[in-house]
Amino acid sequence: MIRHIAIPRGPIELAADLHLPDAPESDAPLRAVVLSTPGSSVKEQIGANYAARLAARGIAALVFDPAHQGQSGGEPRDLEDPYRRGEDISYAIDALTTVPGVDPQRIGVLGICAGGGYAVHTARTDHRIKAVGTVVPGNMGTSFRGFQPAGPSAALDTLADARVEEARSGEPARVNWLPDTLEEAAAAGLTDIDTTQAITYYRTGRGGNEHSTNRRLARGDSLLLGYDAFHLVDPLMTQPLQVVLAGRIGNTGSYEAGMRLWELAPDPVDLMVIDGAGHYEMYDEPAYVDAAVDRLTAFYVSHL
User: Fold this and answer.
1) Which strand (E) or helix (H) includes residue 111?
2) pLDDT digits (tens, 9 = 90+) for 3-39
3) Could you tell me the CA-to-CA distances from 220 to 127, 159, 180, 203, 251 in Å, in that order?
4) What's the pTM value of the predicted model, to 2 decimals?
5) Which secondary structure element, helix H or strand E, spans residue 197, and what is its range?
């Protein structure tokens, strides 16, 4: 069962779907999990795949579109602000604590890809979150700094010049998260398996969604370049942690980020590596997603 809800977030609202068990095992208040989704994705994509499975296993799961993206409010559109992404999670928890039948003392978070880093960053200081689950978690700051051929400082100089021009012209610059087609990727020399699988998921009928634009506001890149999702995890994120990783190590950095998180966390509970799975196959390949959700369910049942 899915309830469509609007989450108040200051002057705007976040569009959200609350996945609920069809037949709860008892009348006791439900455990619940807030999902934090990958960059550029919307609630109907990866988040829905995991939320529906959690609900089928008796755990309420709330997935939402980030502010400025999807069907949520917020201007300018397509902004990927890692700090606002974290605040979105806390606003989602605000809303979840008011839902009848949900136990406000048994709320966890599940972060996937970039959303894994955002979930961790939020859990450090929002201790209403009682358990932290991650699937192929990414640290967007590390990733973006690593993508700059001339280095992050030079990239910030370029972004500064671009923002000056944007202020003068009034035209906000947008960039692609991914090539829009496999042909565009091949023309750019991007033929590695991870890029190919990302495009196959996001930009085709397999996982594409009309509300996922594949664009981000360029001005947000300076925020990402200065971001560290795992800053102060070791002293602050005392909640139990579950990490699920793809066994085929590609170029997304999620395996390395997940292992780094595992090393930093004060209370690492369970590390699962799914043999044969690639990063993007963890988004919707049923065998891999089911294996991850089974393990996550056991984790949440034990710690929520």
Assistant:
1) strand 102-112
2) 999 999 999 999 999 999 997 777 889 999 999 999 9
3) 27, 9, 20, 22, 22
4) 0.96
5) helix 193-202
